[in-house]
Amino acid sequence: MNKPNFSDKKALLIEDMAEARIMQKKMLNDFGFKSIEIAMKAESAIELLRSNSYDVILSDYNLGNGKDGQQLLEEVRHSHL
């Protein structure tokens, strides 16, 4: 079975904890993603989503202050970002 090729795909990683960001970015790299942008808050992610498109969004559920991951993804879905 052929391994999927994600080298031409773009990912957005939303994570507020440094250790988790490092681990999740490595995981995305291991899957073959070459283009990975990182946001540490929901608000930063929304700004990135307004000006870019992504094939994959990987978000932490608990983002600290502000919106949580579920609220963020619901906003993305409903506003068609």
Sum up the structure in keywords:
Rossmann fold; alpha/beta; 3 strands; single chain; 3 helices; globular; three-stranded parallel β-sheet
CATH superfamily: Response regulator
- In terms of DSSP E residues, the strand content is 15-25%
Structural class: alpha/beta
Percent of residues in helices comes to 40-55%
* Count of alpha and pi helical runs: 3
What is the fold named in CATH at topology level?
Rossmann fold
CATH class: Alpha Beta
What is the chain-wise order of helices and strands? EHEHEH
What is the architecture at the second tier of CATH? Answer: 3-Layer(aba) Sandwich
Distance between the termini: 34 Å
Task: State the low-pLDDT regions, or none.
Answer: none
- How many strand units? 3
General form: globular
Mean pLDDT figure: 93
- Count of domains: 1
Alpha carbon gyration radius: 13 Å
Biggest sheet, spatial arrangement of strands: 2-1-3
Major beta sheet summary: 3 strands, parallel
Topology:
Elements: E1 10-14, H1 18-31, E2 35-39, H2 42-51, E3 56-59, H3 69-79
Parallel strand pairs: 1-2, 1-3
What does this structure look like?
With 81 residues, this protein is α/β, with parallel strands linked by helices. The protein has one domain: Rossmann fold, CATH 3.40.50. It has three helices and three strands, in the order E-H-E-H-E-H. It has a three-stranded parallel sheet with strand order 2-1-3, sandwiched between helices. Helix 1 links the parallel strand 1 and strand 2. The chain is globular.
